[in-house]
Amino acid sequence: MDSTQVHVIKISEPSQMELAWKIRKKVFVEEQQVDESMEWENEEESTHFLAYIDEQAVGTARWRDSGKGIKLERFAVLADFRNHGVGGALVEAVLNDVPKQKRIYLHAQVAAEKFYARHGFKPAGLLFYEAGIGHYLMEIAPKD
User: Fold this and answer.
1) What are the contacts of 59-62 at 24+ separation with CB within 8 A?
2) What global pTM score does this model have?
């Protein structure tokens, strides 16, 4: 799998959104035990992405204007494909798509804090809990 290429697309059709939802359900609802009702908030106003390895959808993410800036959310990679560049490819694709003049932030799960730091995000607050999982507010300087 190390020689495979990750390909990220912006979701443009319902069938792609279905694949993203399946990935999010597996990662957040099944693995992390997040209440399913919390998982489907803010879908309509978000811009969604899907990551593929070969022809298989293996990861997803989204961004939206939260009113407090551009919030990156719902980064999920199937367990068998973690640590193979999928998350990094998603971060890069999302950051290349967001409006550049606004604050860009995310709520990083504690386990993913170092991952986001490697992509330029810096902690901007104290530990807090969302869906029973520890998170840190992290921000990144907008790219020109």
Assistant:
1) 59/6, 59/23, 59/86, 59/87, 59/89, 59/90, 60/19, 60/20, 60/23, 60/24, 60/90, 61/90, 61/91, 61/93, 61/94, 62/94
2) 0.90
